[in-house]
Design brief:
heterodimer; A: Thiol Ester Dehydrase, Chain A; 6-stranded antiparallel β-sheet; B: 6-stranded antiparallel β-sheet; 2 helices; about 15% helix
């Protein structure tokens, strides 16, 4: 079981965009399982009130993807983590294919991200897997692509 | 458009550029909620937020027949250029109904520096049974 101290030494993301709570299983170079607890105290819920329909409290699917990708990022950089986006090799989200949402996720649920490293080609890593809650899949991921680039490639004046 | 969303700002609906499409625009304000954590000292608009911009563009401009459908899948996305605070993201969307009756939206997102992303989303009408499954 690995907690926030370790996660924050591995990922550059911080509040409110650090969306991995705990690592429960890691096989470096192969697979990782991580937990993310969804809470109504995340800022996306700030403006919702008692008149908001229940379905509008669904965790944004795009953040479900982000959370899963952060778990993938921990796996991708397991042997060489870089929590600093200003130097070294940084991880960029290249794209995704076939990410399906099976049901809404609501505050109070604990998500289990299951990430498998499919292959690594040069500076690109491909992942697949799913996200489960209460024993059932809430999202399946056919493919997510992460690319490693020098931090300088991200600077606005270099694009 | 009151559902939980990582975006603090709202999309602005634009006149469509083509016959079968719709268009919207999102301005990335420096005060956007996600930016302090993505990343500290170096704010960059997350790729998933470009997908969210597209989703909000869909909610704002979907054809009447597609309104009320739920996001079922991100069929594909490619991120082709970084987006920073202050950028204005133009979202050009085209629409197609699938043989199964779902709605597919293909979007091209760009900023003043050029292409930012291509996004293909699929929307479906969930039955009560599926929603509870």
């Amino acid at each position: 079981m690995t907690g926030q101290r370790e996660i924050r030494a591995r990922l550059p993301h911080r509040f409110p965009m650090l969306l991995v709570d705990r690592l429960v299983d890691v096989v470096p170079g192969e697979r990782l399982t991580a937990l993310k607890a969804v809470t109504c105290n995340e800022p996306w819920y700030e403006k919702l009130g008692p008149d908001t329909p229940e379905e509008d409290f669904a965790y944004p699917p795009t953040l479900l993807v982000e959370s899963w990708c952060q778990a993938a990022g921990v796996l991708a950089t397991w042997d060489d983590p870089n929590p600093d986006v200003l130097q070294g090799q940084v991880m960029l989200f290249g794209g995704m294919t076939g990410v399906a949402f099976h049901r809404p996720v609501l505050p109070g649920e604990v998500l289990e991200h299951r990430v498998r490293l499919d292959r690594r080609v040069d500076d690109t890593v491909l992942f697949e897997g799913e996200c489960r809650s209460a024993g059932e899949p809430v999202m399946t991921v056919e493919r997510i692509v992460m690319a490693f680039r020098p931090a300088s490639a991200l600077r606005p004046d270099k694009t | 458009m009151n559902a939980a969303s990582p975006l603090a700002g709202q999309v602005e609906v634009l006149p469509p550029s083509g016959e079968s499409g719709t268009a919207a625009r999102f301005t990335v304000d420096a005060a956007e909620t996600v930016l302090p954590g993505h990343y500290p000292g170096f704010p960059i608009f997350p790729g998933v937020c470009l997908v969210e911009c597209t989703h909000q563009g869909v909610l704002a401009t979907a054809p009447d027949e597609a309104k009320g459908a739920a996001l079922a899948a991100v069929e594909s996305t490619r991120f082709t250029g970084p987006v920073f605070p202050g950028d204005v993201v133009d979202i050009d969307m085209t629409w197609k109904q699938t043989p199964a009756g779902d709605w597919q939206c293909r979007a091209r997102l760009s900023t003043g520096r050029g292409p930012a992303a291509t996004v293909r989303l699929r929307y479906t009408r969930r039955t009560a049974g599926e929603a509870a499954a």
